[in-house]
Amino acid sequence: MTEQSETSPSYHPVIGVDLGTTSCTMAVWDGVQLVVIPGPMRSVVTQNPAGQIVVGLAPEGDAQPVIAGIKRDLGSDERLRLRGRQYRPPEICAFLLIELKRQAEAFLGTPVHDAVITVSGSAAEPQRRAIREAAGLAQLNVRRLLDDPVAAAAALGPDDRERTYAIYDLGGGTFDTAIVRIGPEGVAVLGAAGDPRLGGDDFDEHMVGFALRQIRERHHVDLSQDENVRTRIRREAERRKRELSTAETTELELPLLTATVSASVPLSRRAFEAMIEPDVTKSLGHLTAALAAAEAEHGIGRGGVDQVVLAGASTRIPSVRARLAGYFGLGPGDIRADLDPGELNARGAGLIAREFEPAQTFEGTRPGLLGANLRLRAEMADPSPAAPDAEAAGPPDLLPVVPAETPADYRPVADASHRLLAAANHRTRPGLRAAYLAFVAAIQAAAPDDRLAELGEILVGEYAALG
């Protein structure tokens, strides 16, 4: 990860976001070089015991529901239950983007309104629309949806002479591959293929199945239908899978799966590689399809590939790298992993993001977006994901007074809201608090009259809803 210099960087506040199935990473240009924002953030949404939305952190126990891998559900009509209500996939994705926006603003020290967001190259139009909708709910202008392989290639930067690369992007939930030519003029995609439902999550499920079979044989009990047990094993599988990238053996430690069952399941790297071999072979089938397209259109076959570029955390698995070297007949040095494969797509998105001028505000015009954003933010646990411009009215635990220049039409409701919030712990009325802070911040920022009117009407609605 690039360290910030001691001098104050001049950040370009258009962020690159790698919106991953299992984790999200961001990068930004600081005026001199690309900086990866500290993270990554896990792509999980859950709730705490108080019923508030928590983003990026798995619950401490098994009692709270968890929504993970939402990227695979984007574009579908799936309904997901949390906090006793139904959410659509774009709304769950919006929680992730709201929190990412908050973290980016905290890191940059300035409001962020714009992003370049990665998307699986195999994503269809419904999934791309869903990402744009989620970004709108998070009050982010999408400057570009960038296909994952193009992001990985962009991270390499231009080359003095033309070279041909195979991008092999095996993430948590999706697989993308492309044959690209990189030269002084940039990146050209020669052929591409992929699978939106192939990735490290599938490897975890193989480990879960293996562990459940071992438990059944040793303890004579079938726990495969217990979702809490499967979740526990899946979390442990994620950790032990990473260990097997450097160790020959590991053990899945599973204490107190039930009142009477605890287990320790040994697993060797060789056994793990055998489990995932069909999935790796499937990925190579997609690579063959991308090469076939490149050869048909541009005359570039397997022998014309100079190097393989790895992206996605699942490419850290040694057998994946070995299979790729054998497939192309290349040496280990030509299977490039000099850039962190978990950061590569974010880096590419960050480099593309610097080409766009930052906006002064969110530019979405669809009615109701701001109100929906405030509702989602109000449902989230602290630290509040309100943007710095909304919190600039005062420290997070203090309530700003109503500005003297408040429009007369909204002065009564602003005064009444302030009195109500000041009379009790204002954090117990998150919807009214978020609306009030946004309204006050807009007044202090001399926002246009139409935006003040929109925020004022939202404040009126939140106050009225309290009866």
Automatic annotation (TrEMBL):
Span list, region Disordered: 382-404
**InterPro entries on file:** ATPase_NBD (IPR043129), Heat_shock_70_CS (IPR018181), Hsp_70_fam (IPR013126)
Family annotation (Pfam families): HSP70 (PF00012)
Q: Which UniProt keywords apply?
A: ATP-binding, Chaperone, Nucleotide-binding, Stress response
| Keyword set includes Chaperone | yes
Q: What PROSITE patterns has UniProt attached to this entry? A: HSP70_1
Biased composition, class Low complexity, residue ranges: 382-400
Family of the protein in this entry: Belongs to the heat shock protein 70 family.
Q: By what name is this protein known? A: Hsp70 family protein
